[in-house]
Amino acid sequence: DAGVIQSPRHEVTEMGQEVTLRCKPISGHNSLFWYRQTMMRGLELLIYFNNNVPIDDSGMPEDRFSAKMPNASFSTLKIQPSEPRDSAVYFCASRISGGAGETQYFGPGTRLLVL
Amino acid sequence: AQSVTQLDSQVPVFEEAPVELRCNYSSSVSVYLFWYVQYPNQGLQLLLKYLSGSTLVKGINGFEAEFNKSQTSFHLRKPSVHISDTAEYFCAVTSNNNDMRFGAGTRLTVKP
């Protein structure tokens, strides 16, 4: 199994540009999570999907952030316009929807730097 | 909502020594507890988890953790560490609301 796949692995952009992060969950997993990791705030849950439907987006910082899951094998996290404070590592994780006790499997992350 | 406190931000230890990484949680409902490890430039990998049953949980790489409900703790232990155990360790808690909360992390550094 390839595990959770994220792209790109690194992204450097200028303030004001649109950024799109991509995630392919593990096949057969139907819950997907987006996290952001920074030194100041640690790991924060941004949004999670169950069966492609957003269940909880209360962690999304503001309207500049949006996430979609058009099908079971693909999700995007978009930042428009990007700001320097969005610089962080963004992780995608997936799990089977057996409940909260199921293990989340993390991708390698996308390291975003906004100049 | 639940929360997690990792009491030590950094733990330096010599190779082959025992180690304990401390984690305390708060929650008003039944919880599931997890320990994840993060190696440099990688995602998080599950070490072990507690769902129910035996309070002593064994995980990968020789790690184990004990759930203590009265002390609301879930400390991670290993009797003899290796250089390769150097990494960041995260304790996490969730309940049936699927809102997983992570601690701030403990950086374990194993020295030769």
Please report the number of helical segments of chain A.
0
| Percent helix range of chain A | under 10%
**Which secondary-structure class do the elements of chain A indicate?**
mainly beta
Strands of chain A, total number: 11
Task: Sum this structure up briefly.
Chain A is mainly beta and 115 residues long. Chain A has no helices and eleven strands.
Describe this structure in words.
The complex is a heterodimer of chains A (115) and B (112). Chain A contains no helices and 11 strands. Chain A is mostly beta strands. In chain A, the strands form 2 sheets. In chain A, strands 2, 4, 5, 6, 9, 10 and 11 form a 7-stranded mixed beta sheet that branches. In chain A, strands 1-3-8-7 form a 4-stranded antiparallel beta sheet, with no helix packed on it. In chain A, strand 4 and strand 5 (42-50) form a beta hairpin. Chain A is globular, with a radius of gyration of 13 Å. By secondary structure, chain B is an all-beta fold. Chain B has no helices and 12 strands. Chain B has strands spanning 3-6, 10-14, 19-21, 23-26, 32-38, 44-50, 56-58, 64-68, 73-78, 87-94, 101-102, 106-111. In chain B, strands 2, 5, 6, 10, 11 and 12 form a 6-stranded mixed beta sheet that branches. The radius of gyration of chain B is 13 Å and the shape is globular. The model of chain B has no long low-confidence stretch (mean pLDDT 93). The interface between A and B is medium-sized, with 21 and 24 residues.
Record keyword descriptors for this entry.
heterodimer, A: 115 residues, mainly beta, seven-stranded mixed beta sheet, four-stranded antiparallel beta sheet, 54% strand, B: 112 residues, six-stranded mixed beta sheet, 12 strands, 0% helix, globular
List the helices and strands and how they pair.
The complex is a heterodimer of chains A (115) and B (112).
Chain A: E1 5-7, E2 10-13, E3 19-24, E4 31-38, E5 42-50, E6 53-56, E7 65-71, E8 74-79, E9 88-95, E10 105-106, E11 110-114
Chain B: E1 3-6, E2 10-14, E3 19-21, E4 23-26, E5 32-38, E6 44-50, E7 56-58, E8 64-68, E9 73-78, E10 87-94, E11 101-102, E12 106-111
Parallel strand pairs in B: 2-12
Antiparallel strand pairs in B: 1-4, 3-9, 5-6, 5-10, 7-8, 8-9, 10-11, 10-12
